[in-house]
Structures
1.
Amino acid sequence: MTNPFKNIQGETAWQAPSNIALVKYWGKYGNQLPRNASVSFTLNNAYTQTSVKYIAKSQVDKQITLKFFFEGKENPKFADKIQRFLESIVPHFPYLPYFSLEINSSNSFPHSTGIASSASSMAALALCLTAIENELDGGMYPSLFFEKASMIARLGSGSACRSVYPYLAVWGKHDAIPFSHNEHAIPFENNVHPVFKTYKDAILIVSSDEKSVSSRAGHALMENNPFATSRYQQATTHLTQLADCLKSGDLDKFGEIVENEALTLHALMMCSTPSYMLMLPNTLKIIDLIKTYRQEKNVPLYYTLDAGPNVHLLYPEKNATEVTAFIKENLLPYCENNKVIFDEVGKGPIKLK
């Protein structure tokens, strides 16, 4: 078969951040579609950089031809996952079988440290693949570019679809949020109080061990969770309320909702069949110390959790000095090897030269 892309080759590279959900998505249906809408902070310092070299094949077949390197080394486990992902998205990117691909990926943070590496890595890869399509087809409007990249990222990792937008992103259809969609995220930086665009996120690493139950398995267990229906209603209500807080700058109500979301997420795990628990004793100790500090110092320091034991501390930029001191003096002993990653809300993906 003649290759319509004969002699075409190139390389594109993107940096995409991780994100931390404020209202959680937990439970999905169909092909990576959410049971409830979610909203997240886009992070700044925790990111993945991915480059994709593409060279037109001399002999065309229907196979995906791929070499994959993570942190400069071939990684068969990751390569198999990416191979299956690329095969699944050929209907969206018909050019893929016509090229030999070499993908290089690296993280700014250690793997398995409580930061959503699947979100940043799949977002970076989706941006690269969409950029290649852009180069081959002559380009699309920027808003459509990021919309498609978000949709492709979602197919690799649900939360990854939120990582293609700056500051905040909403994923999932919600009646109170215009243009919200289940198939891709939308930017949510407009009508947000300036305080939230400089928010800090200190990530306390309680444990870097691999989770006993994967997020994929956890989502599946929601199908028979007795509290699933009420949870989806709660998430919808929380997102409505949180959108108001984000607009007005109500830090206390913001924190109340975010902490409730974190605890609800882990309560759902405990109520699953089989049940499981991802919080550890030091997670609970850190939460208790945060609550005490907040009450005594009247500082708007709040926490959230992903599906794991590590704690994200959220606080305004103006409180960074005193919160950093509190972390170092009181919380580090409960972190694995005194490990804390200081991050903040960021401006989203960057196209690399």
Note: The domain at 196-344 is CATH 3.30.70.890 (Alpha-Beta Plaits).
2.
Amino acid sequence: MSEEIHTILVVDDIKDNVLMLSAHLKAKKYKILQAFNGVDAIKIAITELPDLILLDVKMPQMSGHDVCAQLKQHESTKLIPIILVTAHSETSEIVKGFEIGADDYLIKPYNYMEMLARVRSMLRIQDAQMQALEANRKLDELNQNLEEKVQLQVSELAKANRLRRFFSPQIVDSILSENADDILKEHRREITVVFLDLRNFTRFADSYSPQIVIQSIREFHAIVGPIIFKHQGTLERFTGDGLMVFLGDPEPMENHATEAIKMVEEIHESMLDLEAEWKEKEYNLELGIGLATGEASLGTIGFEGRYDYAAIGTVTNLAARLCGKAEGNQILISERCKELSDVANIREMGDFDLKGFSQAQKIYELIHS
């Protein structure tokens, strides 16, 4: 900081002393404030916040020691350096001043060069102290901002991890780029629901060790999981040996029926090698698949600490019934799914009565290419 911007408060009950000291300091381009008693000195110091105070000790009513003590206890002025000016050089007088917070002493009659040297020294210390305080303030602000950013990033990461339990990575990125709370609000939309289920799994689970059973499920999930996300499917839940997936939400998808059929075809082809391995081990596990298209109510369900994103409605029941009716390596499709898809390799199987439906449902089978 340059000397020109420093402000010095000169305090003395003798006007000539104030004027003389002020003149010396003004000659060095300092800005000068003046007070002729302790009360005014305190008011000016608190209001103007000078960079340095030259304070006479011997003043009537309120001594320089009293003024110094009050200013050092006041929050806004406690860091302002104070040079006490006194005609007494007794050690006790000097010690008393330092004990109440004075930063330096100037003995009358003072040497002009010594006075300027002490002023410059105090101002350098003050500048360094102010710079340190400003640096600490900026550091605290930076740390606070950093902490807030870290908390925000942790929150966003936790949110992303929760979303990745159900949605493909590309859908998660889209949701996080917008307002996830709005996107996941309850709503109604036409979607295609897919149920995947392993045939003969109950007998298999009763016949083999837990290690083999769990490992087989993991092998199954390792194949179908990436394919589901590749086709932007939303994984609603695992059902032991099966999965429920839907396409067309939370982001609308115009061709969700066609995309769902392409997804299950790829799953079927990818499962053939694993099913062959299982057959060699006499597991006799084969995958049955059911697809249905229709409107569903969608949104988050659950309780604190355990929420799921769910599709609820007749379409989910129909997909589950079709999956239950499908034999191993068979893919059954609802009439609405067939109508919306542009897949040619579909044949009609006829009308069937399904549990929970008052009218017979027309069922189609996807013919493997």
Note: Residues 169-366 form a domain with the Alpha-Beta Plaits fold (CATH 3.30.70.1230).
3.
Amino acid sequence: MRIIGGKFKGKRINAPVFNELRPTTDFAKEALFNILSHKINFENTSMLDLFSGTGSISFEAASRGCTQITCVEQHPKKCAFILKTLKELEVEYPLVFTKDVFKFLSNCTQRFDFIFADPPYELKQLERLPDLIIPTILNNGGIFVLEHGKKNDFSKHPNFSELRNYGNVCFSFFIKHEA
């Protein structure tokens, strides 16, 4: 895995091999962050990375100056790797929770400016994620990006903003409008 942009651009990170991972491709990740760089000032952004996997998206945000990063991943070895790497990237207070995402969401009281979720594409509750996240933990004007497969369509959601398609990877963007 490598970091695509920012101050750590080109840095290779050797992640342990996890069999069940479906990491976001470099091509899709680069396209995602090209879009986000026009929408987010990462230096002043609080970020939540759900279903973090190896933390690739968080590392990209850190490389662009984000220092308020929270990751949620249920596998302890992945969490240990993410925490170690974020500290190596000098993120001052990374928060990494070894927890089921839905349990985390039901107890979370903090709000975030940018939330990224990369759940398993076959997750039964995938369609519910925007309604669990946007009203409760996304700041007004905040951006939620949901990575998913081609079979999901969120275009009718009231907070839906745009869809970007990169092969088998889709990113649905949602914006929380001020009440």
Note: DSSP finds five helices and seven strands in the chain.
